[in-house]
Amino acid sequence: MAVHVVSKLDISQHAVLVPAPADSQELAPSSVRVKTQLITLSSNNLTYAKMGGVLRWWDTYPVSACPAPYNDASKWGIVPAWGFASIEESNIPELAPGTLLHGYWPTSALSTDLTLQATSPSEHWVEISEHRQKLMPLYNLYKVQPTSLSAEKIAAPTIGDELNQLGWSAVLQGQAGYYLSEYVFSPRKGIEPIHPLGNAAGLPWTKDDADVSKSVVVSLAPSGKTGRSFAYFFEQKSKELAPLGFLQVTSAVEGLSRATESAAPEFPSKAIGYNNISDPASIEWIRNLRPSKIVVLDFGAREGALDGLIDGIKQDALLATSKIVLVQIGGPQKQMTPEERAALMAKRAQQDLGWVQYNTSGVIDTVVAVRGPDVLYQELAQEWERLLRMRHLAFPDLEIIWKEGVSGVDGIEGGWDLLNSGKVGASEALVYRVQGTQS
Predict the structure, then answer these.
(1) Sequence spans of domains, the chain
(2) Using one digit for the tens of pLDDT, what is the confidence trace for 370-400?
(3) What is the C-alpha separation between 45 and 80, in angstroms, rounded?
(4) What is the per-residue pLDDT for 303?
(5) Dihedral (CA of 114, 115, 120, 122) sign
(6) How far apart are alpha carbons 334 and 422 in whole angstroms?
(7) 321-354 pLDDT per residue, tens
(8) How far apart are CA 257 and CA 271, in angstroms?
(9) In terms of Cα–Cα distance, which of 397, 403, 393, 404 is closest to 425?
(10) Parallel, antiparallel or unpaired: strands 269-273 and 245-250
(11) What is the pLDDT of residue 404?
(12) What pLDDT, on a 0 to 100 scale, did the predictor assign at position 342?
């Protein structure tokens, strides 16, 4: 039984460990013992590693039980991933052994204990361990996943329809794109717009800030699952909430173009390649829509892509007076030192951008406070059920690449190398059966 650890000093350095068997310990009160069963890896996991110290993601699953030198929490950590785990033992009556939970799990085949407290709505639970209290609430939330799949069936050689559906649930259950589309920009009637960091940030976000009716919205690196889900919901906006146009800059032009064709939005929408980002034809497409504002959503674009876009806009006589608002959702692909990050922020200030960071957890906390958890999660469940049904139209080129275990080329170890080297294709979704043959 192995665990994957990553260097906090250089996230391209990582290792797979097989800790010595620990003595079986009695479960603490209000606790469950679980094993990670099925998770997905994406560029989000690189962000969790790069920003793990600042945003406390490294706190989620400590390395204290790992053998030296990997038990040094100042140098090594476990990068969590989204997906499903099964309960092995429980002293919580409502959570029986065999129950499958969706949440934020260690990249490990070992057993893990969670201390859980019931929350609203029903079947939702929050992790309350002391070492996790500085995590944003989203990363402490777990919910029961209805399924007839046992841990043994998930790890079995055959991938049937129900397991395939569970794999898609792991890939598509990210919430960032939905909240960005439905609550931050041009929300529906009766819903007040929410600042991309959430109301707790104490920063203004007016109806004019949220209004995109006189804007062209540009999505950079939209082929990841967050960018794709944003496009899926955004392209459904009604005429009164719609932007002047929507431009997606991507390495998956054909797939995103097919998704747009299926969505048939009530506004101009197109996808172009990175090499066309500052072409005269692309800038002309934006100019012809005559925007007073250009909203740029950066989901983690290739190096130089944002600068190329901004240069093209600022060099155009008609677009140069347009207000540019940059919303940062994903981080840059390469790991940055604090000095490099400070230099980048200074550069963005010099470019006269309205730069805003996006934080899904902050937005969710605000929506919960305003609308209540029962309304919110019922709405979210309905939207995600529809997205799963329509995935062949919303994500026509996306396919699950099934992988096994923790160690080796086909395990999480090999997946981490693929992510760090940028070798995961735009149409590939990596899904790991953690308790598989290579664990």
Answers:
(1) 3-172+400-433, 199-358
(2) 999 998 888 888 888 888 899 988 899 999 9
(3) 7
(4) 84
(5) positive
(6) 10
(7) 999 999 999 765 555 555 655 666 666 555 667 8
(8) 6
(9) 397
(10) parallel
(11) 95
(12) 61
Given the structure tokens 């099925």, which residue do they identify?
Answer: 38
The pair of three-digit structure tokens given for residue 437, joined into one six-digit string: 């043959």
Q: How many other CB atoms are there within 10 angstroms of residue 323's CB atom? A: 14
pLDDT of amino acid 205? 94
Reading the block at residue 276, the tokens are 């066309």
Residue-wise pLDDT for 82-135, tens only, equals 999 999 999 999 999 999 999 999 999 999 999 999 999 999 999 999 999 999
Fold of 3-172+400-433: Quinone Oxidoreductase; Chain A, domain 1 (3.90.180)
Q: Average model confidence (pLDDT) for the chain?
A: 91
Q: What is the value of pTM for the model shown? A: 0.91
* Nearest C-alpha neighbor of 431 from the set 106, 39, 150: 39
Domain 199-358: which CATH number of 3.40.50.720, 3.30.1360.20, 2.60.40.10, 3.40.50.300: 3.40.50.720
Report residue 383 as tokens: 């939207």
Tokens of 96: 């029986």
Identity (one letter) of the amino acid at 375?
Answer: V
H, E, C per residue of the chain: CCEEEEECCCCCCEEEECCCCCCCCCCCCCEEEEEEEEEEECHHHHHHHHCCCCCCHHHCCCCCCCCCCCCCCCCEECCCEEEEEEEEEECCCCCCCCCEEEEEECCECCEEEEEEEEECCCCEEEECCHHHCCCCHHHHEEEECCCCCCHHHHHCCCCCHHHHHHHHHHHHCCCHHHHHHHHHCCCCCCCCCCCCCCHHHCCCCCHHHHCCCCEEEEEECCCCHHHHHHHHHHCCCCHHHCCCEEEEEECCHHHHHHHHHHHCCCCCEEEEEHHHCCCHHHHHHHHHCCCCEEEEEECCCCCCHHHHHHHHHHCCCCCCCCEEEEEECCCCCCCCCHHHHHHHHHHHHHCCCEEEECCHHHHHHHHHHHHCHHHHHHHHHHHHHHHHHCHHHHCCCCEEEEEECCCCCCCHHHHHHHHHCCCCCCCEEEEEECCCCCC
Q: Are strands 31-41 and 111-119 parallel, antiparallel or unpaired?
A: antiparallel
